[in-house]
Specification:
The complex is a heterodimer. Helices cover about 0% and strands about 55% of the residues of chain A. The model of chain A has no long low-confidence stretch (mean pLDDT about 90). Chain B is mainly beta. Chain B is built from no helices and eleven strands. In chain B, the strands form two sheets. In chain B, strands 2, 4, 5, 9, 10 and 11 form a six-stranded mixed beta sheet that branches. In chain B, strand 9 and strand 10 form a beta hairpin. Chain B is globular and about 45 Å long. The mean pLDDT of chain B is about 95. Classes of the chains: A mainly beta, B mainly beta.
Amino acid sequence: GAVVSQHPSWVICKSGTSVKIECRSLDFQATTMFWYRQFPKQSLMLMATSNEGSKATYEQGVEKDKFLINHASLTLSTLTVTSAHPEDSSFYICSARLAGGLSSYNEQFFGPGTRLTVL
Amino acid sequence: KNQVEQSPQSLIILEGKNCTLQCNYTVSPFSNLRWYKQDTGRGPVSLTIMTFSENTKSNGRYTATLDADTKQSSLHITASQLSDSASYICVVSSAFSGGYNKLIFGAGTRLAVHP
């Protein structure tokens, strides 16, 4: 099946530093990847949609200069949290959609998530 | 407004018992409805995906139903196991022009299975 990995699985950083999270589709090509944020006991909130070779589309209220997204290849997208602050502490999850879609479902496959803690 | 509402918010059952989780949605245009299982600290894992023409779909002990007329779905778990303890998220995909789909997430039902 389609597998999506994330690295690192957890990270602790000091306030003011930048953190990069990688999202990889391991056995398929993904023209579109999505980044979500999830706070405790809440559901996933879409942050941005990342298309290979083009600029990401950010959801309303998400600062594009703070959450830098790069989708340089069909198997890799990165999210960089710049100048992280404690309120950025959250669970970040990526998902990837098969290039060309999967039948009529346009299914997204989710990564295992990255737990970010900013001290 | 596109919304997905799930009930109950949380549920505790004894191992071996059955349970049913509910999902009501007001999403248009509708593409498909998905149920995901999310273990604590992990990403969501797909259980079932149904289009409007599919009324029921099973995946092992999980059976999802969809009534596109009333815009309701349910997830039935049979003979629950301790490993079923997780959050179950109902997600509706809304289709837009150009093949772009937007996922609308429910808040999830937190299921705890006790021995």
